[in-house]
């Protein structure tokens, strides 16, 4: 069995990771590290796991686990790895943003690979350390990468994407309070979201001459889980040509599919799927992308990366079904 440790176990991302790992047929949870909850049963923090996991949070670490997931929040993974030593055989998957950009992907002899399987599958298979993509970045990149691969991104890209409240993390705040979020809608970090760096990096990797401006408006939705993203840009080809481009690009992707019908969030919430819809209107190619922000946008993608790194079938532990209601 694969021995797994989790660093930072109390947040939404760690909770989703635990829900998936306890049912993964090849995994044994070794420890879940949390200094603030040490000694507390995990199901006290994640009540839905009662009866499924009997571990307690701990403030001690087994440095020899096979796989280590970092769920520490953005900006904290680097300092943690600088002050804690793990076996050279331990594979690290960071769910924060510390190692996503090329200039940041080296630390104390550890080289990180950007963990978007649809883009870097072969590199992930041989990697020892993974920088898991951001949730918005996942939905948006999957919507644009086929165009970049074909060298078709020549004009301004407009993106409007809405995420559920879990995207803001477990710590309460003014814009996550139920009475503020319910029956409400707002934008934030307009044109300056932190995921733009990794999006541009991946697009330029596929299309070396990519220099088109990206205008990204992130929104807060009044629902808990999911991202609904729309992207549009000038496109000279036909709608049929674009659809063929997308279906060809993702023909070997286990979790990303192109739909002929218009799509909605309930098709992907509680799954590791990304569903795309392509249409052309008034010279613009419109791409719609939907994912679960905590699964495909975080914990499910991290497990997909683990499966690739360990030579397991990609869907192991991730054969999840959406609810129609």
Automatic annotation (TrEMBL):
Q: Which InterPro entries does this entry report, sorted A to Z?
A: AGPR (IPR050085), AGPR_AS (IPR023013), AGPR_dimerisation_dom (IPR058924), AGPR_type-1 (IPR000706), NAD(P)-bd_dom_sf (IPR036291), Semialdehyde_DH_NAD-bd (IPR000534)
Alphabetized UniProt keyword annotations: Amino-acid biosynthesis, Arginine biosynthesis, Cytoplasm, NADP, Oxidoreductase
- Name the GO terms of the biological process aspect: L-arginine biosynthetic process
Q: What is its main location?
A: cytoplasm
Q: So where's the catalytic machinery, residue-wise? A: 135
Instruction: Give any Gene Ontology cellular component.
Output: cytoplasm
Domain named Semialdehyde dehydrogenase NAD-binding is located at 3-127
Which pathway or pathways does this protein act in? Amino-acid biosynthesis; L-arginine biosynthesis; N(2)-acetyl-L-ornithine from L-glutamate: step 3/4
| Class of enzymatic activity (EC top level) | oxidoreductase
Where it sits in the cell: the answer is: Cytoplasm
Cite the EC number. 1.2.1.38
Pfam families recorded for this chain?
Semialdhyde_dh (PF01118), Semialdhyde_dhC_1 (PF22698)
Catalytic activity, as annotated: N-acetyl-L-glutamate 5-semialdehyde + phosphate + NADP(+) = N-acetyl-L-glutamyl 5-phosphate + NADPH + H(+)
Q: Which GO terms describe its molecular function?
A: N-acetyl-gamma-glutamyl-phosphate reductase activity; NAD binding; NADP+ binding
Could you name the domain of life of the organism this protein comes from? Bacteria
NCBIfam families referenced in this protein's UniProt entry, alphabetically: argC (TIGR01850)
Record function comment: Catalyzes the NADPH-dependent reduction of N-acetyl-5-glutamyl phosphate to yield N-acetyl-L-glutamate 5-semialdehyde.
Regarding protein family, the annotation reads:
Belongs to the NAGSA dehydrogenase family. Type 1 subfamily.
- Name this protein carries in UniProt: N-acetyl-gamma-glutamyl-phosphate reductase
């Amino acid at each position: 069995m694969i021995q797994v440790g989790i660093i930072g176990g109390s947040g939404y991302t760690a909770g989703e990771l635990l829900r998936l790992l306890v049912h993964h047929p090849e995994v044994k949870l070794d420890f879940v590290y949390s200094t603030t909850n040490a000694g507390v049963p995990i199901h006290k923090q994640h009540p839905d796991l009662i009866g499924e996991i009997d571990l307690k949070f701990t403030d001690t670490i087994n440095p020899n686990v096979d796989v280590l997931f970092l769920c520490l929040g953005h900006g904290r993974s680097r300092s943690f790895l600088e002050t804690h030593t793990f076996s050279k055989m331990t594979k690290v998957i960071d769910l924060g943003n510390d190692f996503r950009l090329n200039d940041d992907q080296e630390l104390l002899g550890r080289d990180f690979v950007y963990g978007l399987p649809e883009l870097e599958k072969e590199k992930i298979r041989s990697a020892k350390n993974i920088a898991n993509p951001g949730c918005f970045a996942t939905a948006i990149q999957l919507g644009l990468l086929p165009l970049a691969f074909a060298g078709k991104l020549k004009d301004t890209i407009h993106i409007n994407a809405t995420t559920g409240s879990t995207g803001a993390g477990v710590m309460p705040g003014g814009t996550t309070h139920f009475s503020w979020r319910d029956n409400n809608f707002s934008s934030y970090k307009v044109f300056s979201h932190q995921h733009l760096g990794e999006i541009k990096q991946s697009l330029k990797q596929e299309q070396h001459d990519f220099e088109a401006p990206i205008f990204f408006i992130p929104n807060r939705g009044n629902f808990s889980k999911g991202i609904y993203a729309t992207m549009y840009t000038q496109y000279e080809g036909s709608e049929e040509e674009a659809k063929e481009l997308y279906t060809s690009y993702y023909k070997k992707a286990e979790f990303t599919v192109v739909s002929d019908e218009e799509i909605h969030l309930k098709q992907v919430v509680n799954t590791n799927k990304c569903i795309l819809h392509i249409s052309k209107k008034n010279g613009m190619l419109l791409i719609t992308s939907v994912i679960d922000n905590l699964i495909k946008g975080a914990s499910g993608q991290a497990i997909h990366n683990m499966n690739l790194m360990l030579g397991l079938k990609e869907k192991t532990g991730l054969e999840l079904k959406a609810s129609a209601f």
